[in-house]
Specification:
The chain is mostly beta strands. It has three domains: 9-161, Jelly Rolls; 174-318, Beta Barrel (Barwin-like endoglucanases), CATH 2.40.40; 323-392, SH3 type barrels, CATH 2.30.30. Helix content is 4%, strand content 41%. It contains two helices and 26 strands. The strands form five sheets. Strands 1, 2, 3, 6, 7, 8, 9, 10, 11 and 12 form a ten-stranded antiparallel β-sheet that branches. Strands 13-17-14-16-15-18 form a six-stranded mixed β-barrel. The chain has a three-stranded antiparallel β-sheet with strand order 22-19-26, with no helix packed on it. β8 and β9 (116-117) form a beta hairpin. The chain is globular. The two termini are 40 Å apart.
Length: 399
């Protein structure tokens, strides 16, 4: 399990530097400009504070908790989403910051579209989305040096406009990767969640798919290779092994290891084929081919695994269609529209699940409604609509 570590402004000078990044001239007539309010630090932010000097780390000391992959202090500010005046496909950033040698500051954005949020993308010099977005959210990440030197971000100004779109990834990506168990109860994930016994979430080795705390903006469906058990779980941590390996993306989008085939984690290539000298991005010898980490509840209860194993993972934000949010869970996935049907796995609380269609069945009273509607997530997978807190991306048809 890893903490977020995606450098953007990195200075190797012996003195402090004031850095300003200026966006390129706008090429579109309709633009939306705004400045991020760095002074609002709330529950979904991790290890940051705002002072008269700007946004900085609350604690720049290196972490001491066992099992953490990062060797330096990190912090993250996630801003409220901004509704744009007009749909946009590009967001550019202008940052003013003071960065000490060895420290880093990153500004990333993501956009809201009909099917949910895009992945987080670096906004410097520009983030370009594969389709128009109507809302934009900003994430500022600070990383200290090993000596504790840090950065102070004084302002972040953004400009959204429209340019020709690009294709970021094939929709509905599914790959077979090796899964390991997280454990580490009591530790804190990259999005600030404190791990509890029987927890339900996963970690992927890239911050591009990290969900804010208590959200399932980025959700995976993890299934045993036989398909007998599945769990829908949010991505709440970064790991295993690497922190910048979005291996599910095509080479042109993948942040690192672009020469590897799409769907093959760097850790797997290092372990099986000696890629990168058999080491991860930090120079450690890779001891297993893991491409996903599973929290204990996902590992033991959702998939009913007894040891690390190969699994089939669907990266649901790369898909299309209607989505529903599991408001209370973990929720049993049934083989049919009633509690008398067998279970096929679990849908974790906050998971964003695909809804293919719905059928009528047993009436269930849940936290959101009393209903006989059952949503089909995939063939032979049904959940009661009584536990779905929200639906977006279009109307749900009858099966």
């Amino acid at each position: 399990m890893n903490s977020l570590r995606i450098p953007f402004l990195s200075m190797a000078l012996a003195t402090l530097l004031a850095v300003t990044l200026h966006p390129t001239p706008a090429s579109a007539a309709r633009t939306d400009r705004w400045q991020v309010d760095l002074s609002v630090v709330d529950a979904d932010d991790v290890n940051v504070r705002h002072t008269r000097a700007g946004l900085g780390l609350a604690d720049a000391r290196p972490p001491t908790a066992p099992g953490r992959h990062s060797l330096v202090a990190e912090g993250m500010l996630v801003t409220p989403a901004r509704t744009l005046a007009a749909p946009a496909t590009r967001v550019r950033v202008e940052v003013t910051a003071t960065v000490r040698p060895g420290a880093a500051a990153t500004v990333q954005v993501r956009g809201w579209r009909a099917g949910g949020w895009t992945e987080w993308r670096a906004a410097g010099p520009a983030a370009v989305f594969d389709g128009p977005v109507t809302r934009v959210q900003t994430r500022v990440t600070l990383t200290a040096s090993r000596s504790g030197a840090s950065a102070q971000v004084r302002s972040v100004r953004l400009t959204a406009d429209e340019v020709p779109t690009i294709t970021a990834a094939t929709p509905g990506l599914t790959f077979r990767v090796f899964a390991t168990r997280i454990g580490l109860v009591g530790n804190t994930t990259a999005n600030g969640h404190v791990i509890v016994p029987g927890d339900h979430f996963v970690a992927l080795p890239s911050g591009r798919s990290l969900s804010p705390r208590n959200s399932g903006d980025y959700t995976v469906r993890v299934c045993t290779t036989t398909g007998s058990r599945c769990e829908y779980a949010p991505v709440w941590d970064i790991g295993p092994w690497n922190t910048r390996d979005d291996y599910w993306n095509i080479s042109g989008v993948r942040e690192n290891w672009k020469d590897l085939p799409q769907g093959r984690p760097e850790a797997q290539a290092a372990y099986q084929s000696g890629y990168n000298g058999g080491r991860d991005q930090f120079g450690r010898v890779v001891l297993n081919p893991a491409g996903i980490d599973l929290a204990d509840g996902t590992f033991f209860d959702g998939l009913q695994l007894t040891t690390n194993a190969w699994v089939d993972v669907a990266y649901l934000w790369t898909g299309t269609g209607t989505r529903g949010v599991v408001g209370d869970g973990p929720l049993n996935i049934r083989t049919g529209p009633g509690t008398n049907y067998g279970t096929r796995g679990l849908a974790a609380q906050y998971a964003s699940v695909p809804i293919e269609c719905y059928v009528t069945g047993q009436t269930v009273t849940g936290p959101y409604r009393t209903t006989n509607r059952w949503n089909r997530l995939a063939s032979g997978q049904f959940v009661s609509h009584a536990y779905i807190s929200a639906v977006w991306g279009g109307a749900v048809p009858v099966c």
